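Per reviewer request, we include the raw input and output of the structure prediction for the construct analysed in the revised manuscript.
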Amino acid sequence: MPWVQKTTHAGKCIYIQRHYSSRYGSKHKCTRGSNYGKTSEAQAAVNNRQACLQQEMIFNANFGPGDLTATFTFRKADRPKDIQKIKKLWAAYMAKLRYAYKKAGVEFKWMRAIETPDKNPHIHMALSGVDLTKLPRWPYGRVEFVPIDDRDHHTYGGYLREETHIKQGHEGKYTTAKSRVCFSRSRNLVVPEPEYQIIYSDHWADEPRAPKGYYVVKDTLNNWEDEVTGFKYQSYVLCPIRAKNHRYLC
């Protein structure tokens, strides 16, 4: 039951997580128990952080320059009354989107979050790059398309997950069933798999050094004590350094 370093490659990013593992290396002697009772707020916070981080990784592994993000809004007269109505309207539009991508000969990759505040529901989406003139019209309001820029590290995937998990009136008391309804992604996305390395102790530097040719992405370095176990936890993201000619040095 060692301390481990979990390394995950997602696009240009390398995600580093250092923490204590009660199960890794136990040779199946320590297994996860069955779910029972309500999830504690501390465990819910851990679950949400990991869910957002996973979707951030998936976004970085699948989307980049040439792809798009979009926000679909509803005009006041066409605003659905509840999430089930939104889902019904969206399912019909998704069928048209799939047909449009197939006709254009472009693989359709997507991530989607339905945000349902009291007065102005809307839908956020990341989708494969395509000629916008070939996409079906959104008949219920406006659509804003934004090309994904060439930065090395994007947080949009985590943002999509967070929008459905935190900012819908839960105030930290997460309702995972509703989150599954509001967040979704296509099955053809690459899901990065982590590599594990045993590190034996928690004596790591609070400010880690990046390996040659990489830098630690600003604002991604976090050191804290796990809300459930109380053990130390560290996470950060590495990205390759670019030369002045925009080529990567590694």
